[in-house]
Structure formats: structure tokens, C-alpha cells
Design a protein that fits this description.
By secondary structure, the protein is of the alpha/beta class. Helices cover about 35% and strands about 20% of the residues. The strands form three sheets. It has an eight-stranded parallel beta barrel, surrounded by four helices. A hairpin with a 5-residue loop joins strand 1 and strand 2. The structure holds 2-keto-3-deoxygluconate and magnesium ion. 2-keto-3-deoxygluconate binds next to loops.
Length: about 425
């Protein structure tokens, strides 16, 4: 009869020794948080086990970074020391249920960082790229969409053409709105788009009517110039009411979008019923979701087509797999958030996840700067409109701590939005 491993390690502590059945345990001996700002802020957790294996996880919450740092340092790390790094599910449940205060962006970011670091360790110990532990590759690569933006329709389409020439199969289009000084998704002249642009929130003005008049002409022109072989996407960034979103969805139907993103704020999931009844334009929602509960009704009632939650904000690989499995039952596919505030560690994790789940849809790609890429050396790469996580053991991404130490944290907030009469609005 096969001997069972020692029950001494049942609470996850006192691990680190060989179990009686020969199962190797990996005692967590240290965990530390690294904050760096190579052109923008990133928070990374590194966990180390007794045999010197280390794993990393992204813990970046744009504009609220230090809250997660404190949550990890003051409340999570002390609970991790001595636990068996291989018990990923148990540690996830321990941190989620054990806090008593469940969910929320800060908590779920911290849990995600631990979870991803533990998967990184497990895959390194196995000597395999993480996606192999998640069931192996379900496809050759993950189709990504790039961002084309400009002050005018012409500038945006020129950018889209540039993306298509680089091999992108899918492009998101955002153009300036005539009559508004600035809007979401459009870079300032001569700069890359980076929304966290002030040490205190910058303020912009918003007009739904001006915006609504500007979107259909952008996509009409885009189809004229780009044709029909490229997927086109658009992000409303939570700025419409359900009935306004329905109107936009109907107006965009002739241009066959891949998706219309965040058409209305999603706290009230039932609000999507109205949009869904009126339009066949596919909908994507969820970049600010933290758990499966934020998307339950949207998925169950098939009110959306793509769920955009991603690894760092929604509890790591462990919880994202749960969301994807639930979504798969309802023909909802994944479309992970991938803006620059999701670090290369999150991108690597998202690619292992995307390569393996059956219902992958698309992955957002907003390339990081050269400085960020140097701090986070990685095995993932882009070719022919697809990304692949690479075949290095683990996540295939690291953090160069010496280089990271050169870039000190700089407070940077996302902007706020007001209506033209001064009323606070959604950004
Ligand atoms: O931190 C906020 C950004 O990541 C978000 O505004 C980007 O909406 C976004 C997107 O679709 O990439
Ligand atoms: Mg978005």
C-alpha cells in the first residue's frame, strides 16, 4: 500500500521536507514586494522557497499601487512564511476566505500576485512552461489586438494601417472627439498613450452627444480603407447609459465590430439586458472585475460575448481559470485586459492562461516601453498578429531587481471626467 504524505503539514506550515510518499514540499521562506517605475509604476511580489526556487507575480493596481504593497507586506506575507508553495489552491482559499473581508481590487490583486508567483514556482520545479501544467496549448498562439489612436479619423486610420502592416489581425480604434479637448484612449500629440498622467488626477470634459456623433464615421472610413479582413474593436470606457449604448451598437452594426467594450458601467449587470435586446454588436466587459461574482449575471444570461477580467485584478491564474470555465458553459470567450499598467509579469501569465483555455477569444496588447522591458526580461514574443508565452520553465519572465531599484515610485493617477456643466462623470 502507498504511504500517505505526513499530515503534519495539514495547515500548510512545517513544510519543506520530503513527504513520506516522496512528495517534495516547497517551504516558503521569504516573500518581498518590489516597487519600480521604469516609465510607469509596477508592483511585483517575489516568493522564495527553501531550495532557492523563486516565483514572481504582478500586484500593480494603477493609481492605488501602495495600498496593495501594504496589504501584501502587512497582512499577507506574514501568513505565507512556512507554507507549502505547492498548495496553490489551498493558499488561494486561505487568503480569500481567511481574510473574512472578501473581494475588492486591493485584496484580489494581492491574492493574484501570490497565486501567480506560486504557479511560477510550481512550473519551474516541474521544468515546464506554465501552460503545460494548465493542460497544454489549445492553439498555436494568442491573437492580440493593438491600439490605433489619433486626434482625427485620418490619424487613427493611418495608425491602424501601420498595425496591419506589422501583422496585427485585430486593431482597436479610438479617435479624438470634435469639440472635446481630450478623450479616453487618444494620446497627446507626439506621445505614447499612458492614462495615468498626473501626480493628482487631471480633469477632462465629456459630452455624450459629441462622442456619439463621432464613432460611426470613424468605423465607416476604417472599413473603406482597411477592408473586412481585419478585426476592429472600440472601447466606450463606461461612458454611456444602456439606451445610448444600444443606439451606438445599432449604428455600428454595418461595420461588424469584433467587440464594443465597456459600453456602460457594469455594477448593474441587468442593465446589459437592454443593450443586448437591441443590438447584435458583440460586447466585451470586465477589465475592472475582481471576481467571478462581478460577471455572474452577465455570463449566465449571455449578456456579453467576451469577459475582460485579467490575471492581476481577478485573483490570479487559479480564479481566472474558474471564470473561463464558467464563461465557456455560456459561449462567452476571454479577452484579457492588457494595457501598459498590467506588467510584463501579468502579460506572461495571461499568455499561458490564454494559450491553454478552450474559450480564448483575444488578448489586448499595448506594448511596454524599452525601459519596462529591460526591467522585466521575458520569453514571450509577437509574430503574425499572435503572441506566445515562450517555452522557458515557469512564467518565462523575471524582474531585474538591481535595475528596478534605479526607478523610484512616482505617484501617478488616472484622470477624472466631468460633464460640460461641471458634473462629475465616469472616466
Ligand atoms: O488603468 C486603467 C487602464 O488600464 C484602462 O483605462 C485601459 O480601458 C483600458 C483598456 O481597455 O486597455
Ligand atoms: Mg478598456
Amino acid at each position: 500500500m502507498v504511504a500517505l504524505p505526513s499530515m503534519k503539514a495539514r495547515d500548510g506550515r512545517r513544510a519543506g521536507q520530503e513527504g513520506e510518499a516522496g512528495l517534495v514540499m516547497a517551504e516558503i521562506i521569504s516573500a518581498r514586494v518590489i516597487v519600480t517605475c521604469p516609465d510607469r509604476n509596477f508592483v511585483t511580489l517575489r516568493i522564495e522557497t527553501a531550495d532557492g526556487t523563486t516565483g514572481i507575480g504582478d500586484a500593480t493596481l494603477n493609481g492605488r499601487e501602495l495600498a496593495v504593497v501594504s496589504y501584501l507586506q502587512d497582512h499577507v506575507i506574514p501568513c505565507l512564511i512556512g507554507r507549502d508553495a505547492h498548495r496553490i489552491e489551498d493558499i488561494w482559499q486561505y487568503l480569500y476566505k481567511g481574510a473574512y473581508w472578501r473581494r475588492g481590487p486591493v485584496t484580489m490583486c494581492a491574492i493574484a500576485a501570490v497565486d501567480v508567483a506560486l504557479w511560477d514556482i510550481k512550473a519551474k520545479v516541474a521544468g515546464l512552461p506554465l501552460y503545460q501544467l494548465l493542460g497544454g496549448a489549445s492553439r498555436e498562439g494568442c491573437m492580440v489586438y493593438g491600439h490605433a489612436n489619433g486626434a482625427t479619423i485620418e490619424e487613427t486610420i493611418a495608425e491602424a494601417v501601420r498595425h496591419v502592416e506589422q501583422g496585427y489581425k485585430a486593431v482597436r480604434l479610438q479617435a479624438g472627439v470634435p469639440g472635446l479637448k481630450s478623450t479616453y484612449g487618444v494620446a497627446k500629440p507626439g506621445q505614447r498613450y499612458e492614462p495615468a498622467d498626473g501626480a493628482l488626477p487631471t480633469e477632462s470634459l465629456w459630452s455624450t452627444e459629441k462622442y456619439l456623433r463621432s464613432v460611426a464615421p470613424l468605423f465607416e472610413k476604417a472599413r473603406e480603407v482597411l477592408g473586412w479582413d481585419v478585426h476592429l474593436l472600440h472601447d466606450v470606457h463606461h461612458r454611456l447609459t444602456p439606451i445610448e449604448a444600444a443606439r451606438l451598437g445599432v449604428e455600428l452594426e454595418p461595420y461588424r465590430l469584433f467587440w464594443l467594450e465597456d459600453p456602460t458601467p457594469a455594477e448593474n449587470q441587468a442593465g446589459f439586458r437592454l443593450i443586448r435586446e437591441k443590438t447584435t454588436t458583440p460586447l466585451a466587459v470586465g477589465e475592472i472585475f475582481n471576481t467571478i461574482w462581478d460577471a455572474k449575471q452577465l455570463i449566465e444570461e449571455q449578456l456579453i460575448d467576451y469577459v475582460r477580467a485579467t490575471i492581476v485584478h481577478a485573483g490570479g491564474i487559479t480564479h481566472m481559470r474558474r471564470i473561463a470555465s464558467f464563461a465557456d458553459l455560456h459561449q462567452v470567450r476571454t479577452g484579457c485586459h492588457g494595457a501598459t499598467d498590467l506588467s510584463p509579469v501579468c502579460m506572461a501569465a495571461a499568455l499561458h492562461f490564454g494559450l491553454s483555455v478552450p474559450n480564448f477569444g483575444i488578448q489586448e496588447l499595448m506594448p511596454h516601453t524599452a525601459k519596462t522591458d529591460a526591467v522585466f526580461p521575458h520569453a514571450y514574443g509577437f509574430r503574425d498578429g499572435m503572441m506566445h508565452p515562450g517555452d522557458a520553465p515557469g512564467l518565462g519572465v523575471d524582474i531585474d531587481e538591481e535595475l528596478a531599484a534605479k526607478y523610484e515610485y512616482k505617484r501617478a493617477y488616472l484622470p477624472v471626467n466631468r460633464l460640460e456643466d461641471g458634473t462629475m462623470f465616469n472616466w
